[in-house]
Design brief:
The protein has four helices and nine strands; from the N terminus they run βααβαβαββββββ. About 25% of the residues lie in helices and about 35% in strands. Bound molecules: zinc ion (ZN).
């Protein structure tokens, strides 16, 4: 499962399906889409409207790329609907979040890691550096900065 959405270039249209929190997670990709002047649409997801989502997604044309950012249980619903309609794994990104999770930016390899809100230390999943979670929030990376832990 991804922790951060990646912009995929050259699609005919982009669909952002999320709730309030998901908007923040998607902001970097959204900036790219606006810069490229690509077509896009936001879909505000709520579990009660899942049938509408199915209808909405099945009306989309070929070349549409789907970004979904939701908590696990809802993400799973959308994933099932999207697969049923025929979105392949090359046509969609599913990002799970939890209110309790925060992103940590690795100062060495620049990878984003996910951590629990109260966590003070973690190991970068890419370069395996031991990181200490700082209270510096980077607007640029949408993450807290992780510095080498003093051991
Ligand atoms: Zn790293």
């Amino acid at each position: 499962m991804r922790i951060d959405p990646v912009f995929i270039e050259g699609k005919r249209k982009y669909i952002f399906c999320s709730d309030e929190h998901g908007l923040r997670v998607l902001s970097s990709v959204f900036e790219h889409v606006k810069k490229e002047k690509s077509a896009y649409e936001w879909y505000h997801f709520s579990a009660e409207k899942r049938e509408l989502l199915e209808e909405f997604l099945s009306k989309q044309k070929m070349g549409t790329f789907l970004y979904v950012v939701l908590p696990y249980s809802e993400l799973h619903i959308v994933q099932t609907i999207a697969a049923h309609i025929g979105f392949s794994s090359d046509e969609a990104q599913f990002i799970e979040y939890s209110e309790k999770w925060i992103s940590i930016f690795c100062c060495r390899c620049h990878e984003l890691n996910r951590a629990e809100e109260q966590q003070t230390e973690l190991t970068c999943h890419q370069c395996e550096l031991k990181l200490e979670v700082s209270d510096h929030y980077s607007e640029l990376h949408h993450a807290f900065l992780g510095y080498p832990a003093k051991s």
